[in-house]
Structure formats: structure tokens, C-alpha cells
Amino acid sequence: MPPHTSEHTGERIARYRKLRRLTQRELAARASISYSMIAKVEQGAKPSTPAVIAAVARALSVQTIDLTGQPYLAELQADELDGLIHPIREALDCYDLGADPEITPRSVTALAAEADRLCALVRDTRLRDAARALPALIEEVTTAAHAAPSDEAWRVLASTYRTAYDVTSKLGFPDLCVVALDRMAWAADRASDPILAGVRQYLRSLVYLRAGAYRMGQRLVTVGMSTLAEADADRVRDVTTGQLHLGAAVLAARSGDRDTAASHISEARRLAESTGEAGKVHWLSFGPTNVSVHEVAVLSEQCQYAEAVQAAQGVAIPEGWAVSRASAHLAEVARAQLWIGRPEASLRTLQTARELAPQQMRYHPMVRETVTGLVSAHRSTPGSLSNLAHWVGI
């Protein structure tokens, strides 16, 4: 567990910087970041961006979670979510033990419906409900797949591992994310499903995106697209390919390659025009809305905050769209609003995101960073902001 979880990211950066006996200017030079940026982030005056966190982590030879403070154990304990992690860890470890003689599995059709239900819970940000039901489902599907192997059974097992990735990533357990993705690859290979294998590479690239290893993330996207080329040419392949382009756009933006980022956004938009909204195709939320949302994210990653806020004004979230994606988009907009000097608008946006997806936003590092910046921006903290800061653990 990262120490001093009550600190904000800037304070953790300062602490690790001093341990390395570096000045702010020396750290800025090592991380290829401006001195003023380092100073503002350490003070908590501005929210640190994921790109800044990743660059500083590399310069200090620490992990990004050491700087963000994840997992937020005090809040996990308060929400009674900490006790749900160990059963998931155990369930992920039974993959090669064969059929459990004490489990009589349901039909593959019934198990597929239950796996879809858990995917829907995650998209609705009902993380506690999904985490509580997940270990038993993993164990049941594992037994079903070993007892009567079939492509469909292995596909359902891969889906449960994907949900394990979603839950553990949102709660801040990157070690379990990697294990879940390894298990997903194992099941997808047995299902002989190139689409699942491509989805897995996309999710894997996001792990490296969060860690700041952009070149590795881009390589994974390339491998994922090559894998998808083996699948039948249909809407499902287009949706998955489009989502990989969106991931590639953010990776390129983080690494400072604007032209490549724009190219990936353009290709994703072309695919979205033919697929339409496809929120339930492997639960990727791909479509015109997600392309627009990623365009905002790409602008924000390039520190074009005014342009990001302006682009966000043109984003219309359709009814029934994934709450998890909508709330993450609002968190991105709130950060951009704070950067361009609109703290009141940023606070309102964060409040909306909280109302929309309370569990996800409570554990979102970008939300914590923005709230820290909002507290710093106010001479006196209004009650609504004080409440929000207490809620996220600041």
C-alpha cells in the first residue's frame, strides 16, 4: 500500500522528490516538465494530469500509484469494499484447478446471462454489487468450462475475467488488473475468439496508459488490431477496431503526437458512422458519442483545456448511455474547467458526476486531484466543496 494515503498527489511528489534529494527544478528537468507545473502541482494549486504523474513517476523511479495513493483503503473500508477484493483474488487463482466437485454449474446460457448482468452493473457503476457476485460466478463458470469445454463456455469465462479487470481497475488494484487480463487471454485462446483477444489487448493497453508506458501501450494496440484482422468483417469487428483507435488516440496524445492522435480519432469517427451507438457490443460503449468524448479527452491530454471545454459543450450524452463513461467524461471536463480558471463550473460538473456515479467517482484519482485544486482555489471553502472534499477523503 502506498504510504500517507491522506496526502494529495502533489504532496506525495514533494515527499518522493525530497527522498531523492532533488529540487523542484531538478525534478522538472528530469521529467521534461516546466518548473511552474511542478510547483503548482506540489502546492495543490492545479490538478496534476495523468501525463504529469506518469512523467514524474518515471523521473523518481516509483509507480504511478505511489503518487496517486491508490488504492484508497480508508474509503474502501468505509464502503465495505475492501473485503470483496480477496475473494476476487482467490477466484482468479482457481483457473487451472479443473472442475470443482462441490459446484453444479448452471447451463452455459444461464451463465452467459449472469456474466452480462455483471457487465451491466459495472457500466452502471454499481461496483459493490458486481464485486460481491463476481467470485462465485468465476468459480462456477470455471467449473462449467472444465467439465464440458466449448467455445461458448470459454467465452463466458473470459467475460467474467474482463469484469474482474473492470472492478479491480476502478478500485485501484493494478496487480489484480494484470492477473485478470492474463486469465482473460487464457480463456480467449481456448475459445479461439480473435475479437475477445483484441478486446483484451485494448484493456491491456489501458493498464500501460495509466502507468505512463505509452510506447508499450501503442504496441499492444497494434497487436490488437492485427488480431482483429483475423475475425470476420462485421459490425462487431468494426466496433472493437474503433475502440482500439480511441485508445490509440489517447496514448498518442499522452506521448505528444498530435497528428497521430487526430488520425486515430478520424478513423474511429469513420467507423462509428457505420456502427452507430454500440454500447452492448462487448460493453465497449463505442459509437459517435464515445468518439466525441475521446476527442475532449485528447484535447485535455494535450493541455488544450479551453478547446476541450468548448468541445465538451457539443457532446450530447444519449439516454441509456453507460454511466461509467458519462461520469468519467464529466471528471475530465471538470479538470479542464479548473485549469482555465472556472472553479465554480468545475465544482458543479463534479457534483453532477458524483450524483451520476458515486462509487466510481469516489475512487477516481482525477476527481481527487481536481477537488484538491478547487480547495486551493477558494479563499474560504463553501459547504458544497467541503462536503465533496470530505467525501473523497481529502
Write the layout of secondary structure elements.
Elements: H1 9-19, H2 24-31, H3 35-43, H4 50-60, H5 64-68, H6 73-78, H7 85-92, H8 108-123, H9 127-147, H10 151-171, H11 174-191, H12 194-211, H13 214-228, H14 235-254, H15 258-275, H16 288-301, H17 305-312, H18 323-339, H19 343-356, H20 358-362, H21 365-377, H22 383-392
Helix pairs in contact: 1-3, 1-4, 2-3, 2-4, 7-9, 8-9, 8-10, 9-10, 10-11, 10-12, 11-12, 12-13, 12-14, 13-14, 14-15, 14-16, 15-16, 16-17, 16-18, 17-18, 18-19, 18-21, 19-21, 21-22
What this model shows, in words?
The protein has 394 residues and is mainly α. Helix content is 73%, strand content 0%. It contains 22 helices and no strands. It has helices spanning 9-19, 24-31, 35-43, 50-60, 64-68, 73-78, 85-92, 108-123, 127-147, 151-171, 174-191, 194-211, 214-228, 235-254, 258-275, 288-301, 305-312, 323-339, 343-356, 358-362, 365-377, 383-392. α18 packs parallel to α21. The protein is globular, with a radius of gyration of 21 Å. The relative contact order is 0.09. The model is unreliable at 1-5 (pLDDT under 50).
